[in-house]
Amino acid sequence: MTSAPLAGIRILEVGVMLAGPYATMMLADLGAEVIKIEPPGGEISRQVSDSYFASLNRNKQSVLLDLRSPEGRARLGEMVADSHALLVNMKPSAIRRLGLTYDALKQFNERIVCVAMTGFGLNGGDDPAFDYVIQAATGVAAMTGDPDGPPTLPGYSSADNSTGLTAALGLLAQIVSGRGGQVDVSLQDVMLSQLNYRAAAYLNDGVRPQRHPYGAHSYYVPAQLFPTADGYLALFVTHDAFWAAFAAEAGIDGFPTMAERAARRDEVLAVVSAALSADTATHWEARLRPLGIPAAAVRTLPEALEATPHAVVTAGDFRLVGSPIRIDGYEPVYRPAPALDEHAGASAQSS
């Protein structure tokens, strides 16, 4: 077994709820020493549920600091002196008021990397910016759902999770550069960035996103959910070779080119829907997967977890989804989320 990829990297987190804690947990899983700085009473997500907190804070240490007090800020400065990075997700005014910017902390360590995760940027104001609000504000909700139905939100916190991963990337990039500095990552910018080809189509060609039934793709046909004899099947045919293999298995003639399938979308979807209605979603998956055709039966989360037991790990008393990053020769050790201020003594010794 090789050493952890981020062994020797020390990261301080002043994280709240999901986005910040998720970012640092991903880094902790890769071997970084992550010290979670919590206020008196603990980080607010401890009040949600034990499993919620465990799912975002494994492999970390916990130190209680009152950053509103001179003693707490002095202790923070001592910890910054021996750390590579500080990641915080709060309102811009709170970040500045508590002295959690590079300008405030460089006196202790010129090479400290300070990552601020906010709704609209460090200079973007304090408007509330929870995940669902950002999905609504950036066009994600308007693009999601049935054409005749209301805007729809995904069933998980896509903005928070995406921003967490982006912030972790920015943090590591600045550490690798060898320079300290401020890294500014906003939920708004991250979600707009993830609309890449949709945004480009509008900015360059004036094409406004449209919703299609069953979440159909705007370019590829057929690429959407289809009802079957039992359950729904996701089918994603992106090129002509996929179509040829699928059509042969499903007994469909015609529409050999991507351009023709796009131009005759309604006809293609009609024949595909009729063919898929003859068998169940799980049977279609079993038939199409060996042919190399991208297809999957729609599963519930419990069904998906049962189908992928390798993704589930144990950290203390909790079963959780483990790190999605697989590195040859390295296997993460999953330690439970810390008790509040559990590592105060150890942190003091390391400083």
Automatic annotation (TrEMBL):
Gene3D superfamilies: Crotonobetainyl-coa:carnitine coa-transferase, domain 1, formyl-coa transferase, domain 3. One of its GO terms (molecular function) is CoA-transferase activity. Keywords: Transferase. SUPFAM superfamilies: CoA-transferase family III (CaiB/BaiF) (SSF89796). This is CoA transferase. It comes from Mycolicibacterium duvalii. The lineage of its organism: Bacteria, Bacillati, Actinomycetota, Actinomycetes, Mycobacteriales.
